[in-house]
Specification:
Order of helices and strands: EEEHEHEHEEEHEH
Structural class: alpha/beta
Strand content: 25-35%
CATH class of the largest domain: Alpha Beta
Shape: globular
Radius of gyration: 17 Å
Number of strands: 9
Strand order of the largest sheet: 3-2-1-4-5
Oligomer: single chain
Length: 216
């Protein structure tokens, strides 16, 4: 089984090919913007370097967010388009979940994942024994800080940690291989490639009404 992992939710553009036992090939660049132009060539590169044909890919794992509205949709659209003609399952996992798994591969620790949501806000969630015990939420920094300080946890991960006065326990961006391997434990029916936004849209409907949030 070969799994392709894709992430465009943040400043990094990432693609990785893994088997259940090892990394076949990977590429990751901190580009800030321009994921739409960079992702396809990056996937082509990891396929060539890994000597893997697209038809050999049996699963695609894609990071669903949170992240920029445009950025996170790049990998989601690419994964769906690549999977559809071959009927390959696509598993969507949040960056918060992946960061927690990277920090505690055994899943035995309680991990807070926190991402800088800009505008003075933090998007965070909590994971324990591999399960999401507090769902992703976007809050003002001071509110998030107060809530997190009331929790008992082993580590915090992500670039949002510094905003609440804590030190991140490790790498603050999603690892392509970690994303791909983690997806093997999840059912694509229960974890579809649906976007997870930090907040609802700013757009208003006629009459000043707010559209329903796009977050799952």
């Amino acid at each position: 089984m070969i799994t392709l992992g894709l992430d465009t939710t943040g400043a990094w553009c990432t693609a990785a090919l893994v088997s259940p036992s090892h990394i076949i090939s990977q590429a990751s660049e901190k580009i800030g913007r321009g994921h739409a132009e960079r992702l396809a060539p990056m996937v082509e590169t990891v396929l060539l370097e890994g000597d893997v044909k697209p038809a050999q890919i049996s699963r695609i794992a894609v990071c669903t967010g949170p992240g920029s509205f445009t950025g996170l949709r790049v990998a989601l659209a690419f994964a769906r388009a690549m999977a559809l003609p071959r009927k390959v399952p696509v598993i969507g996992l949040s960056a918060l979940r992946v960061l927690a798994a990277q920090t505690s591969p055994s899943g035995t620790e309680k991990i807070i994942s926190a991402i800088n949501a800009k505008r003075g806000e933090v998007c965070w969630a909590a994971y324990e024994n591999g399960h999401e015990v507090i769902r992703p939420r976007t809050q003002a920094v001071e509110i998030a800080k107060a809530e997190i300080q009331q929790l008992q946890f082993d580590n915090i991960i992500g670039d949002g940690a510094a905003l609440i006065g804590l030190e991140s326990a490790g790498q603050n961006h999603v690892s392509g291989p970690a994303l791909a391997w983690l997806s093997l434990d999840y059912d694509p029916v229960n974890y579809p490639p649906a976007p997870l936004y930090m907040r609802g849209p700013d757009a208003k409907l006629p009459g000043g009404k707010t559209p329903q949030s796009l977050s799952p």
